[in-house]
Amino acid sequence: MKDTIDSIGLIAAGTRVETGARFPVANPGTGGQAGTAPDVGQAELDRAVAAAKAAFPAWSATSDEERAAACTAVADKIEAHAEELAQLVTAEQGKPLGGIGSQWELGGAVAWARYTAGLSLPMEVLQDTPEGRVEMYRKPLGVVGSITPWNFPVLIAVWHILPALRSGNTVVSKPSPMTPLASLRMIELMNEVLPAGVVNSVSAADGAFNMGAAMSAHPDIAKIVFTGSCGTGQKVMQSSAETMKRLTLEMGGNDAGIVLPDADPQAIAEGLFWGAFINNGQTCAAMKRLYVHDDIHDAVCDALVAYARNIKVGEGTQEDSVLGPVQNQMQFDKVAKLVAQAKESGQVLLGGEPGEGLFYPPTIIAGMTADDPLVYEEQFGPALPIIRYSDLDDALAQANALDVGLGGSVWSSDRAAAKEVAKRMECGSVWINSHGMIQPNAPFGGVKKSGFGVEFGEEGLKEYTDIQVIFA
């Protein structure tokens, strides 16, 4: 397995790019090394972009049916290698193989790829009268640059690449240097069923050369699709301005959940836990702060803690591990700092002490207020602050007070009442009695500083096209 990992390379124009320099990829679960990845610069980026640009005319000219079949073939290829890719994800990202872990991520990647293959954007007739006929076409943009994060390395790469392919674009993909292995291997596999140059890859260590910035400024990349932090997304937007790139930016959030007084604490405990702690809290649309009505505050806390106590945290290849480590030291230190600050003013109901290595236990802290950093900063890790409220308008005001708005949730026994509360939340997606349960047929994106554009479904597919209107 180690030899295979260290042989993963880059693809340009359908062939492997031989590079001398490689950088180590850490295994956050063991503290060892997961493998190595190519460390390249501007010349290799230019080569990948040129390959994608050269492949675009033929790929964009293929029929809708041909592209659908090609995307289905990609889904088949990922599915056939799902276990191999899941092993790589666990090695470099840390999440367990089973449960809601790497195998689950690969299942989601296959499902998203298949659903996207079935989408289409046919010509629309806007007018057909004696005065004239007006037709609207969706045309592919050209080369799409994909920049993906470290939390779901395969799944998010599929979210970026498949709609680009389906709409007739070609791709240059750059994975996070924290988790490049599974993504690069997946692109090798894609090239076994796609024409040369349609999907290409680049990777680089964090260092003097900023690959993401170079992609954002590259004159031959027509669109950037980015998933990551708000600060990095803002830099992508700035560096894309000169070339007027199209953008889809899915950035950070600080999702609020609001528990109404009629909710059943026992019934919602499991959903609350997974809404907050899926992927160890390292999820853009995880619930990162929870507002609970005074009437049931203690009962909700008790039920949530009782469920969380049974969650095993451990190295990802251990069969009984339910949650893995925090993926990297920087994120671990941020979580530890925020929890340490929260302990000064709040009540630790569970966890609160760092484990060995990068392992941090699920941590639940009550007695939090809007002034606590754990509430107003995105922790992106296994720590959930609970805020008691008595007035719903005040809870909504606090939930909406931040300058981000990705997702939110309302928990209640009365779905109609919950829906009315949901409409008042300032975020792109709101779930009732669950959190973060995204679907491939529902547009997903943020408001305020959480995003620009949407992903998934027909609305997401449209983001990869320009409109052309023909007056016939």
Question: What would you give as the CATH superfamily of the largest domain?
Answer: Aldehyde Dehydrogenase, Chain A, domain 1
The helix/strand class is alpha/beta
Please state the average pLDDT score. 97
Return the CATH architecture of the largest domain: 3-Layer(aba) Sandwich
* Radius of gyration, CA atoms, in whole angstroms: 23 Å
What does this structure look like?
This protein is an alpha/beta fold. It is built from 16 helices and 22 strands. The protein has a seven-stranded mixed beta sheet, sandwiched between helices. Strand 10, helix 9 and strand 11 (246-250) form a beta-alpha-beta unit. The N and C termini lie far apart (59 Å).
List keywords for this structure.
alpha/beta; 6-stranded mixed sheet; Ald_DH_CS_GLU; Phenylacetaldehyde dehydrogenase; 22 strands; 2 domains; Aldehyde Dehydrogenase, Chain A, domain 1; globular; 472 residues
